[in-house]
Amino acid sequence: MNAVILLIDQIVDLFIWTLIAYLIIGWLVAFRIINPWQPAVRIATNFLARIHEPILTPIRRLLPDLGGIDISPIIVFLAVQFLRNLLLGFLATGY
Fold first, then answer.
1. For 32-52, what is each residue's pLDDT tens digit?
2. Domain limits at 87?
3. What is the number of structural domains in the chain?
4. Buried b / exposed e along 5-16 (16+ C-beta atoms within 10 A)
């Protein structure tokens, strides 16, 4: 059972870190610090977008327009942390 708990914890950690990397790449492209047409940047952006956009897009549709501020990653981060704690709590108590 401990192996399952550790696996879930590591998967969630990996998801959160890739979400943070996706946000940072988006900011760097938006502020023109890195060139989005470079092959390495394009590959990283496409890879991270394929992981996170299916989750972020429905949340963006539900949220009101905040004038260019995107809080959907914050909501995803909080939801993932909540579900992780809930699942780990259930697995740790044996339910």
1. 999 999 999 999 999 999 999
2. 2-93
3. 1
4. eeeeeeebeebe
The C-alpha atoms of residue 11 and residue 94 are separated, in whole angstroms, by 21
Contacts 24+ apart (CB under 8 A), 79-87: 80/12, 80/15, 80/16, 81/12, 81/16, 84/8, 84/9, 84/12, 87/8
In the chain, the amino acid numbered 81 is Q
CA 27, distance to chain mean position in Å, is 15
Spell out the residues 6+ positions from residue 75 whose beta carbon is closer than 8 angstroms to its own. Answer: 59, 63
User: Rounded mean pLDDT of the chain?
Assistant: 92
Q: Enumerate residues 6+ apart whose C-beta is below 8 A from 21.
A: 44, 48
